[in-house]
Amino acid sequence: MGFLTEAAVLLGAAIIAVPLFQRLGLGSILGYLCVGLLAGPSISGFISEPESVLHFSEFGVVMLLFIIGLELEPKRLWSLRKRLLGLGTLQMAGCAALLMPVGLMLDLPPSIAIFLGLTLALSSTAFALQVLNERRQLATPHGQSAFSILLFQDLAVIPLLAALPFLAGRADAAPDNGWVIAQSIGVVIAAIAFGRLVFPRVLALIARSDVHEIFTAAALFLVLAMALVMQWAGLSMALGAFLGGVMLADTPYRHELEANIEPFKGLLLGLFFIAVGMSVNLALVLDNVWLVLGLAIAMTLAKSVVLAIVGLLARLPRTEIPRLAAIISQGGEFDFVLLTAAVAAGVIDQRIASLCIAAVTLSMAATPFLYRLGERAGDRLKESRPFDTDFGDDTPPVIIAGLGRFGQMVGRMLKMQGISFTALDPNITQVEFIRRFGSRIFYADATRLDLLRAAGIDKARLLVIAVDSESAALTIAQLAKTHFPHLTVYARARNRHHAWKLMEIGVDGVVRETFASSMEMSVEVLKGLGYPSANAINAVRTFRDFDNQLLKDTYAHRNDTEQLMATEKAAMAELQSLFQQELDRGRARDSQREEDVAANDHEEARDDADTEAPARGA
Asked: Can you say how many angstroms the Cα of residue 138 is from the centroid of all Cα atoms in its chain?
């Protein structure tokens, strides 16, 4: 079967499976794994040699690490050194101690059981970082801790590979291994010097050529070259790409490099997950189902316990500890490398390696589910502090429900005008932070009628609903209009449909959260295109007034899709007509202005001629 046929089938299957799994809330990784399992030798046999696909697709992990490196400036990476060494060492040592009995139960000698424990202590960089990226949690405390541990694990692969000859009884390998370690250190130093001093100058020369595809080629060359050099030195390809990214993180080309690499990274990383799914030996798993399940559960539980302890020692917020324990409790892609190398060196037999690989793959597939459990456990550990009930004797005329970014701007404006307000927010961290600046804010949920009464809403004149949640905004609006009809209510709407629901309740003023800022941006865009300032402001004002009126006009047809589309279509045609009329009037004004200027010039020329004639006669 040809390469093109295999590629087309895999891409087609991924196009169907991945969006489906995303829609079901299972994540893209499980979708890729399912495609690989179905296409691999265990089920359909469509691809009989998944090793070749896995070897090629590892460049997806390489590019992922390069992009992550681009987001970490050297100073920031240096600031992680204590966390990297401290948390990484604790995690590896703790997991090895708990997983060593697994090797002993498999009748391995103590030294090889320790090696197996250290191998199973490794986690999947690709799986963990992909899940964190999808949820945008890489910058969180548990995300940063997980990243530090993963980076330490990548470094730990080097001595583990170097230890294999000793475990195999080849003491004569000591001189060679010493030379290999020295060579590896030299290559790392040379790579850092090249990435820091030489390659930015090369990129500067290429950027001046204005040939975009050559810049893309240069970015790919850098990633592949750093990876291959590191592999030649016996190091991790992913580590080389990461160092290359870090060296270029504070250059002007960082964002363009990231944009050029991103499409390749996404496709190859998906192919990596497909290859992992292909590698599952389903027959072996079914023949030893309880042993494989036991290995996977033992590995996951041991690593979760150790990671929870590491999180406590690192003084992470308690809501973050379950997330850290779940996100890197699986096995990793380097387990495949180390186990395969151990079999080749005669340290571990093929059956034990295959069982461990199956258990590692099973744990990797469970990562999205485990992380979801970790998130739920973290949510349950949130502060259980009771809401504030004592709001004092002051009764400001304005109550703001929700003092996030939107509510803060309203509050600051009121404060500048000398108008006092009471703010209610259910985020204790936000409340404690804003309270430092002297604002009157309380830890309270504005969807509760008793807390609204305690805050003095019955004596207030105006309520501003600025909460993020659409459902919470609707609940607060309903309570306010039902129980406090004297109150004027203004509400933040997420979109048109949310605005219509608030209007249905009877909210006095509805403001779409991004509408005003988008109109302000439109003025600047038109000015940037050469429009005179007055013309830009008039055009945007026309559109703003028209769209606000359209929002009210379409409210009556909000539940009739066909009528709604017809109304909006007619409205757009009317808006185009208005703009055309404004354009025609502008052209007429410009033409009249040109005629007036020409007439004035003619009049001035005639006056000059009349003045000069007597002078010539004299």
From this structure: 7
Contact 123, 330 (CB under 8 A): yes
- For residues 116 and 99, the answer to whether their CB atoms sit within 8 Å is yes
Cross-sheet strand order for the sheet of 421-425? 441-443, 421-425, 398-401, 462-465, 488-493, 509-512
Q: Is the pLDDT of residue 505 over 80?
A: yes
Instruction: Read off the DSSP letter of residue 512.
Output: E
pLDDT score at 148: 82
Q: What's the distance, CA 511 to chain centroid?
A: 28
Q: Are 90 and 145 in contact (CB under 8 A)?
A: no
> What is the DSSP code string of 10-75?
HHHHHHHHHHHHHHTTS-HHHHHHHHHHHHSTTTT-SSS-HHHHHHHHHHHHHHHHHHHHHTS-HH
Neighbours of 368 (CB within 10 A): 22
Total-model pTM: 0.53
Given a contact cutoff of 8 angstroms between Cβ atoms, the answer to whether 166 and 114 are in contact is no
Is the model's pLDDT at 575 over the cut of 60? no
CB 41 within 8 A of CB 47: yes
153: its two tokens: 């694990």
Alpha helices per DSSP H over 366-487: 367-380, 405-416, 428-435, 449-454, 470-483
Tokens 């005639």 locate to: 606
